[in-house]
Structure formats: C-alpha cells, structure tokens
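Hi support team,

I've been running sequence recovery on a batch of backbones for a student project. Most finish fine, but this one hangs at about 90% for roughly twenty minutes before it completes. I'm not sure whether the input is malformed or the queue is just slow. I've pasted the structure tokens below so you can try to reproduce it. Let me know if you need the job ID as well.

Thanks,
M.K.
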C-alpha cells in the first residue's frame, strides 16, 4: 500500500467537521479526497481494521418507550467474522425491519465508523436495525472480494440469523450504492433469495468513465476529484482490462427488486447514474429516481448541518417511505415526498 493511500486512510476518522458550503477547491483540507464532515470518532488503525475479514457494526434506534432520548442510538461493533451465534440478534432492535448498509468511499476508503452518523439517522428515520459490514477493500483485495464479503454478510443474516429476506433492504452510498446491485446479482447467482428492495445514494455504477458528461461539467460544483476516481476504479477492478466487468452497473438486472436511486443535480455521478436508471427501467426493474437540485455527491451526509426542510433530510424521509413501501407498510402513492422524480 502506498504511503499516500495510507495517509488518506488515516483521515477516515477525522475529528474536524466541515461546512457543506465550503468551496472544496479553496480549502487545504483533505475534503477534496475524503469527506471530512463525518462524525467525531476516536482514532483507529484503519489499515489493520480494513484487512481483517469481517468486522463492522450493528446500529439500531433506542426503544420507543417515552424515556429514551431520540439521539441515544445504540451500536455494537464487531472486529472479526460475523458471529456464529444467532442469539446476538435477540437484543438488536426489530428483526422485521433490517437494512444491510454498504458504505461508500470509492471502494478503497471509509468504514462503518466513518458512516456512523448516517447509519444512526437512517436507523432513526426507518426504525430499522442496520448491519454495516466492513468489507475487504482494494488495492489489497480487488473485485470481486468486496462483493463476496457483502454477500457473505447477507447470507449470515438469512441463514444464521434466520431473518426473512422480505424484511431486509439493502442500502449504500457512492461505491456502496453500486455494491447494492452487485451484491444482489451475486446473491441471485448463488441461489439466495433477494431482499425486498435497495436504496442507492449517489451510486457509482460505471467504472469505465470518469471524464464525460457531469464528470466534467460538475467538477466545479462537486467535491469528487475525477483523477482519484480513475485511480480508485483501477484499484477496485484490479486492472484496466477488468473495468467493464467489475462495474456494478453492468450486472444482469433481471429480477432485481424495487430500487430507490437518489442523486444530486450538482454531482459528478449524476449522468452515469441516470443513464443506468433508464437501462434498469427498460429491463423491468421498478426504479424510483430522484434528482435533488443543487446537491452534491452523497448529500444525505450533510444532514447533520442542514435544516430539517432541506434535501439532505428529505432524502431520509424518502428512504423511510421507500422502506415502508417495499415492506408492505404503505401504498405506492405514499412512497415519495418532494424531490424531482425522473
């Protein structure tokens, strides 16, 4: 692993929140490479934590007993393989509403810890118990290892944890959004039943292109550096000749469950995500796509800074409505509020 990449990973648990209004190009902060508005967390040995198979966190909301403060979420980290004892699930919230969350970070960076504020907000708005695995990452573990680890986590939920797949929703941001469909396709290939649905925030789906469309036109409005996107895609694929095969957007879409895709109008991945949405719809997938005006890459992360009536919070509301819909709690007409439907 290069010294520069090791340094970048040391920023994953930065303790310096940043304003969502910061002009990335005028800042000396590492925000241009790794989002640094993430929650205050203790320093950890990211590289060591990353290379161990398994590991991650459970996150679930406090009991609705009128006594617990709504901000007092609970989490249970685990640092190695998923436990063999399904009894661990007994005190982990609601087994009738579970989200398998696949974190983003260009396939190379971040972990369940860097996404803890997002996980807690998602758990709070959906009422779901969340499992966020720390899948192994490139360059040490290129594709298909990250996908295989995500499938292993899903297999654990339904085979060891004895959870009903129809009560499970996949979710992820950026690279994790791409892993949502890649994991579904791999699970289907291995004969596993598919989950009830998937939420994809600013999904990275096409690894072959980081220079056309909004990758170029939105460079001044988003924080994603396209040169690093190319390097990360090469690390994930394990070589230029495997970029297309490793691209999550190229999986077989047949039979995939309903999906909610959210992108920001000002982000670099907007065009490629919307092109994929149209292809998924043509393949018969039930896709709800929302474009939020003026928003950047993975804008739900900015909810900790935003007023309740702004798009970052609205994305959580839509996620909650989508989860209700695919779990059979509400009708299609109630599934989305605000945002521009595509």
């Amino acid at each position: 692993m290069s010294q520069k990449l090791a340094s970048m990973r040391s920023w994953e648990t930065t303790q310096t929140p940043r304003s969502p209004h910061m002009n990335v190009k005028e800042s000396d902060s590492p925000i241009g490479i790794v989002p640094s508005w993430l929650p205050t967390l203790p320093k950890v040995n990211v590289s060591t934590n990353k290379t161990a198979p398994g590991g991650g966190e459970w996150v679930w909301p406090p009991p609705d007993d009128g006594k617990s403060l709504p901000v007092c979420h609970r989490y249970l980290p685990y640092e190695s393989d998923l436990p063999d004892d399904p009894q661990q699930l007994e005190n982990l919230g609601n087994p009738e509403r579970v989200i398998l969350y696949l974190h983003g970070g260009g396939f190379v960076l971040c972990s369940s810890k860097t996404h803890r504020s997002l996980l807690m907000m998602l758990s709070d708005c959906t009422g779901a118990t969340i499992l966020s695995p720390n899948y192994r990452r490139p360059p040490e573990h290129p594709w298909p290892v990250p996908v295989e680890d995500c499938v292993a986590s899903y297999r654990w939920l339904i085979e060891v944890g004895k959870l009903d797949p129809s009560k499970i929703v996949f979710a992820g941001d950026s690279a994790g959004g791409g892993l949502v469909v890649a994991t579904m396709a791999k699970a289907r290939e291995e004969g596993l039943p598919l989950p009830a649905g998937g939420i994809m925030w600013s999904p990275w789906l096409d690894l072959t292109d980081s220079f056309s469309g909004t990758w170029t036109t939105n460079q001044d409005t988003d924080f994603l550096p396209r040169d690093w996107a190319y390097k990360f895609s090469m690390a994930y694929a394990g070589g230029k000749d495997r970029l297309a095969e490793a691209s999550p957007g190229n999986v077989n879409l047949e039979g995939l469950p309903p999906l909610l895709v959210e992108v920001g109008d000002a982000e670099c991945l907007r065009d490629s995500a919307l092109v994929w949405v149209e292809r998924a719809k043509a393949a018969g997938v039930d896709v709800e796509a929302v474009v939020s005006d003026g928003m950047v890459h993975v804008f739900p992360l900015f909810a900790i800074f935003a007023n309740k009536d702004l798009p970052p919070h609205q994305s959580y509301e839509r996620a909650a409505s989508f989860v209700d819909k695919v779990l059979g709690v509400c009708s299609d007409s109630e599934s989305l509020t605000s945002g521009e439907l595509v």
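--
Follow-up from support: It reproduced on our side and the slowdown came from queue contention, not your input. The chain has one domain: 3-15+30-341. No action needed from you.
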